[in-house]
Amino acid sequence: MTLNRRTFIGTGIATAAVLNAPMLRAQTKPRVVVIGGGAGGATAARYLANDSKGALDVTLVEANPIYTTCFFSNLYLGGFREFESLQHGYDKLAAGGVTVINDLATGVDRAAKTVTLAGGQVLAYDRLVLSPGIDFVEGSVPGWSVDTHAEIMPHAYKAGPQTQLLKAQIEAMPQGGTFAMIAPPNPYRCPPGPYERISMVAWTLSKMNPTAKILLVDPKEKYSKQGLFEDGWMRHYPGMIERIGPDFGGNNVEVRPDAMEVVIDGAVQKVDVCNVIPGQMAGKIAAIAGVTDDKGWAPVLPDTMKSKMDENVYVLGDSSAQGDMPKSGFSANSQAKVAAMAIRGELTGSKVFPAKYSNTCWSLLAADDGVKVGASYEPTPEKIGSTDTFISQNGEDAALRKQTYEESIGWYAGITADMFG
Amino acid sequence: MRTQNLKFLGVLAGALMALSLPASSAELIGDAEKGEIIFRQCSGCHEVGRGAQNRIGPELNRIFGRRAAAEKDGFYYSKGLQRMGADGLVWEFETLDAYLENPKALVTGTRMNFRGMKKPQDRADVLAYLRQFSDMPQNIPESSPTARAPEVELSPEVFALVGDPEYGEYLGSECQTCHQVNGDNAGIPSIVGWPEEDFVIAMHAYKRKIRPHPVMQMMAGRLTEEEIAALAAYFKGLQ
């Protein structure tokens, strides 16, 4: 197996390498199949189709005809966003030249370079892009299984009916009841996500159920934006939220869905709502394709997002093991642009420029109190490495926090337009 | 100060009468001297006065009586403003007053990234100032354009760099995670259709951390001068 890594000689734009593209077979366009229509896959499909101006045959395989973004789904739980505002169709992508197939990919034959769909269709590819998001590690929270217990103790960590279920449960809690969250171990999708969710649940409860309690059971010592969240919780929801970290048994937890109990270090706690966010791994199709490692994630080359296992396969977003970037929609969108450029370079001979990546994660603490964290990244020989970072500061004035929130709304409009057209 | 306005009108009195302007423009609408100071909020994007040119926003000489989005001198207006212009919107005191109060309320989809001027007196003053550059185009006061001094001093070589739009297209894809190419600007400003020079100055101001926004400081911080030129060339071409 030879990996087609690109080297840049010298610096600056003039030296951007043009690759020796394979000769196009007569009358046949190179075929790219993209699996997963989220921030990674939709963006990659759109950029491949747009930028190649018809030179590539781009097919997007996504099980759901309407996609619900996981990012901003916490704002729905807080009542800041309508559920429908999180939903997006693929009409514009299709109009832009992407063949959209609403089916589930169930098999990948890397030797034959084909993808099999649940409906029986077989798609041939020259390059395959896998962007299937996450799946849950079975048994990571003792007592809980996604197939049997997600309707009782929802994960709501893939947006959709699960998110609506969790919101309905929160709203139906008895006065003074207890909401529990079992936070996931690293690495997982959207590092600040569980804690923004705690903020949004607290916002909702503070309005309709002010004597309710929130129990956050966390196996991790520390977490993203911790200082900002703790400051926000103290200011907005004093006395409502209790976090149990690993020092107090947060890493030794079992749930009993039928009894609605959480057992923390042997102590039984009755709860009214329990949001179980289990340990995570790459979306199943990545493992089926055989491009994942023993930790369940798909290692990729840092300059292109190309799988380390197969030079014809790229892996984007949450599923990939790339280095320092968090698993986020922003990251997946950023990685998709690098991969789309690399794939076009390979298949059409278009110019390839040095990869640049970036990420920003906004979180809402309460109405008009937004914070953010972000970083820029570049490939190093070993991994995608962080080059510069920033984070909101405690004590920022209300106007800046409001502006940060408004900026996040602008970002949502921007990234969804960038993904879906 | 009203006396200033009176003096100005006095000089032009004959001409004004001869032109039989609409009643609204012959009245004292505000304090032009105060308006000049208030206009500093606008001058980051708009120039007015002798030699004024289109920048991020259109130049504002002869704005009174101008049809919205009507300039034929190459300024690219938002579709929203073009539509309003086609529908017959003409900039007079009343329409400018409403636009300044809340730009997006009057013109849906405008790219003017301004929250609005809430105090009626402030609007009246700034419009009195602007009107000086409208009534008698051939008698524009001897003032220089009011655009602020650039935030960063850049060498001529930096401006002379010719950006590669193809490289700009790739680099610009990173901007489009947040900034929309259709010019929508809710929460995040529009960056399409800027003059290259203004784009270059803004990016260098972020790069040197003179402009405060942390995301932009980070994004601009790692761009070379050539890369900034490439981005400016690319976004200038987007309409």
Description:
The complex is a heterodimer of chains A (421) and B (239). Chain A is 27% helix and 25% strand. Chain A is α/β, with parallel strands linked by helices and 421 residues long. Chain A folds into two domains: 27-133 and 283-420, 3-Layer(bba) Sandwich (FAD/NAD(P)-binding domain); 141-276, 3-Layer(bba) Sandwich (FAD/NAD(P)-binding domain), CATH 3.50.50.60. In chain A, helix 1 packs parallel to helix 9 (329-348) and helix 6 packs parallel to helix 7. Chain A is globular and about 65 Å long. The two termini of chain A are 36 Å apart. The model of chain A is unreliable at 1-26 (pLDDT under 50). By secondary structure, chain B is mainly alpha-helical. Chain B has two domains: 2-139, Cytochrome c-like domain (Cytochrome Bc1 Complex, Chain D, domain 2, Orthogonal Bundle), CATH 1.10.760.10; 156-237, Orthogonal Bundle (Cytochrome Bc1 Complex, Chain D, domain 2). Chain B is built from twelve helices and no strands. In chain B, helix 5 crosses helix 7 (120-131). Chain B is globular. Classes of the chains: A alpha/beta (421), B mainly alpha (239). The interface between A and B is medium-sized, with 35 and 31 residues.
Question: Could you give a short description of this structure?
Answer:
The complex is a heterodimer of chains A (421) and B (239). Chain A is an alpha/beta fold and 421 residues long.
Q: What's the CATH topology label of the largest domain in chain B?
A: Cytochrome Bc1 Complex, Chain D, domain 2
Q: Which ranges of chain B are low-confidence, i.e. pLDDT below 50, for 5 or more consecutive residues?
A: 1-26, 137-145
CATH-assigned homologous superfamily of the largest domain in chain B: Cytochrome c-like domain
- SS-based structural class of chain A? alpha/beta
Write the H/E string of chain B, N to C.
HHHHHHHHHHHH
Any idea what the radius of gyration of chain A is?
A: 22 Å
Supply the number of helical segments of chain A.
Answer: 10
| Biggest interface and residues each | A-B, 35 and 31 residues
Number of helices of chain B: 12
Amount of beta strand of chain B:
under 5%
CATH architecture of the largest domain in chain B: Orthogonal Bundle
Strand content of chain A: 15-25%
- Could you name the CATH homologous superfamily of the largest domain in chain A? FAD/NAD(P)-binding domain
Outline of chain A = globular
| Strand order in the sheet with the most strands of chain A | 5-2-1-9-20
The termini of chain A sit apart by 36 Å
Coarse morphology of chain B: globular
Tally of domains of chain A: 2
Instruction: Please give the CATH class of the largest domain in chain B.
Output: Mainly Alpha
- N/C terminus separation of chain B: 41 Å
**Overall number of domains of chain B:** 2
